[in-house]
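S.,

Sequence below, as promised.
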Amino acid sequence: MSDPFLDMAKTELLARLKEVNFETSVSMRVKDVGNIFILGHDATISDDRADAAVIASQETFTKILHGTLHPMKAVMFGQLKIAGDAKTAMKFGNLFG
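The prediction came back faster than expected:
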């Protein structure tokens, strides 16, 4: 059984991914909750390894998903960490404006 936050985040990501194709994978790692793996036009709740990872708390990702915090601002303030391919991580950030 998955976490309600991950289910909500996956739904939100799937809506945004309709217009974007991730040729490389990215993992949205929500601290103490779980991971969402993004590749192509799909997002799945999975611990699969990705080319890039964006790592933050549930609170930070909630703000990003609801549009009250831009991912680049979150990186600048140390609320969002990036591991792996920075270009792929930036593409993730572009999903939110």
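The domain at 4-94 is CATH 3.30.1050.10 (Nonspecific Lipid-transfer Protein; Chain A).

Coffee later?
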